[in-house]
Amino acid sequence: MEVILREDVDKLGNRGQVVKVTPGYARNFLLPRRMAVAATESNKKIVEQERQAHLKKDAKESSDAADLAKLMAAVEVTIAHKAGENDQLFGSVTASDIAAALEKQGYTIDRRKVNLEEPIKKLGDYKATVRLHREVSVEIPVHVVKED
Description:
The protein is an alpha+beta fold. The chain is 34% helix and 30% strand. The relative contact order is 0.14.
């Protein structure tokens, strides 16, 4: 069965692409979730219009994210956390903590967009990557200091 994808699907294709899938996969997964439509001539025209609108919207979001990345290039985050001997933290500093610290500085960033290699468990200086857009990300220095 041929369907037109309305959004990007991993390991299958991108938005607007005509792909051949099994009827069960289309009927039970793609069509109910509105991820695809049947490949008819009228649907091809509609999906092409949606794709053009999406490209314009995506270009605007990308440029907005690039502007925000320029602003965030100078941002540093300092987090005070309780620590014991050997600079070992009680608990850890996670992406949520970094997102909350950015919120205090006036940047509203979702915690899922903050990428840490692993939770921070010691005092020191670290780098966190913030994905602002699919193609735009910025590295932010994170300083973890001992709470008084």
